[in-house]
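User: Reviewer 2 asked us to show a designed sequence for the structure in our supplementary figure. I'm pasting the structure tokens here. Could you produce the per-position amino acids so we can include them in the response letter?
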């Protein structure tokens, strides 16, 4: 019985020792830390595409007078891409500023030739800065000048 008592006592002592000893902290389940919100980088603005560069086509128009200027201007009135038109009667030229993305010198010449068959393309050059703006049209004596949707 001594052995049994000793065995029981040793068990109790082991149990008592375990209670007085600090236990290692139990492994806690890993806590998921909320991820930091991604810092939004400032939006990178792409440069706006450059506005289409306007060009000016100059046409030779024999016999250019005020009445013919009015008819040529009317022939271009409904053409997309036409920005402005200006006549130089002494030089017998008719300059048309246009947006190349919307029309071309060939299409403009065809429209002008419906009015004056012997018109010809003299040349094309980049438009002057003031001519590229939605400019005033040189509508001459156009009877529709006051009702026209184009800026005058």
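Assistant: Here is a per-position design you can include in the supplement:
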């Amino acid at each position: 019985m001594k052995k049994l008592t000793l065995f029981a006592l040793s068990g109790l002592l082991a149990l008592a020792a375990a209670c007085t000893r600090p236990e290692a902290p139990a492994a806690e389940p890993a806590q998921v830390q909320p991820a930091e919100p991604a810092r939004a980088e400032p939006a990178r603005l792409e440069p706006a595409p450059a506005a289409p560069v306007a060009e000016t086509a100059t046409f030779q128009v024999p016999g250019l007078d005020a009445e013919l200027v009015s008819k040529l201007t009317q022939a271009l009135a409904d053409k997309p891409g036409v920005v402005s038109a200006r006549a130089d009667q002494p030089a017998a030229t008719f300059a048309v500023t246009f947006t190349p993305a919307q029309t071309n010198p060939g299409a403009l010449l065809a429209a002008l030739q419906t009015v004056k068959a012997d018109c010809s393309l003299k040349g094309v050059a980049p438009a002057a800065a003031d001519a590229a703006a939605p400019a005033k049209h040189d509508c001459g004596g156009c009877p529709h000048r006051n009702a026209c949707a184009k800026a005058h």
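For the response letter, you might also mention the following. The chain is about 30% helix and 15% strand. The helical segments are 2-20, 66-76, 105-113, 129-132.
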